[in-house]
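Onboarding guide, step 5: your first structure request.
Type a short instruction followed by the sequence, for example:

Predict the 3D structure of this protein.
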Amino acid sequence: MWCFRWWILPFIFGQLNIYYTRAAWPLPNMSSIQLLGLFADAANTSEPTEFSVHSCAMFKAALVLSQQYNIKIDGEFIGWQAAQTGGNAIGALRSTCQAVTTANIIGIVGPAYSREASIIAAFAHSDNIPAISYAATEPDLSDRNVYPNFYRTVTSDAAVTLPIVKLFTRYNWTSCIMIYQNDEFGSGGMEVISNAFSENNLIISKFIVFDIATQHIRGDLKDILSTTPTRIIIVWADDYHTSLILQIALNFDVLGPYFTWILSSKVSFNSFNQTMYTKLIGMLILEPIIGSVVNAPFNTTLLNAAYQIWEQYEPETFPGSTKVNYYA
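The system replies with structure tokens like these:
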């Protein structure tokens, strides 16, 4: 298992256009015992994301690898079903219900987002099967009394509060504005950061909501920022919504060098006009990283074997071992 830790990174993004085609994996339903993988892209999307493509490929590679290691349950290899949820709770629930009514699903890998995870965690508990998310970080999901069948390979957002507090202490910052998306991920991050600030005598001067339904900030961003003394802004949103928030900030000219922005998600330069790149300089990202980045131990034999399987069956999406999405 890879170790995820929070690390503060400069705002440095690669620019890459990726095109994916359908690959020929071994038949997933060769066994009556199956795992269900839930991935965030919409079904039949024409614009698949690296996040979903890489995660799905590693899911399949792990199960092919389990067969090579002769891992069986009740004398059978483990097969799989992979479903695209569209990144929303209803899509995740629909895919899960369809899978469990047509196959013997013994566990769920996913879903990706916190806004999907609570309902899938509750479903897993009712069906007495484990659900293991690779990217859902909402702190309340750690409550074993509420979600006894839910696990994850990434740390809770509660873990990010320590580096944020240390960052503010290091530079003698005392206050900030926080922008967060109005779902479980955004609200959960807002709550744990707010609590950590209160415990360390730091202040969040203003909370600003980004509405993911309307895809707009509630209120006048330029007016709010210009009338608040602090010049530090924390954004707690996923990569897609972070890019929308930054575009709004670019339109109002409230990025660098006037404000220091701290992001919880990495976005691509491709989202913005090249003439605006200089205004994006100086941002910070709080990002979970894999254990190898900080020299933590991990099983290189199994990991490299999974990479080889991915490259064998889906070479058109394999980016090389050093460029695999961290969540995958």
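Each response can be followed by summary notes, for example: Residues 17-154+298-323 form a domain with the Rossmann fold fold (CATH 3.40.50.2300).
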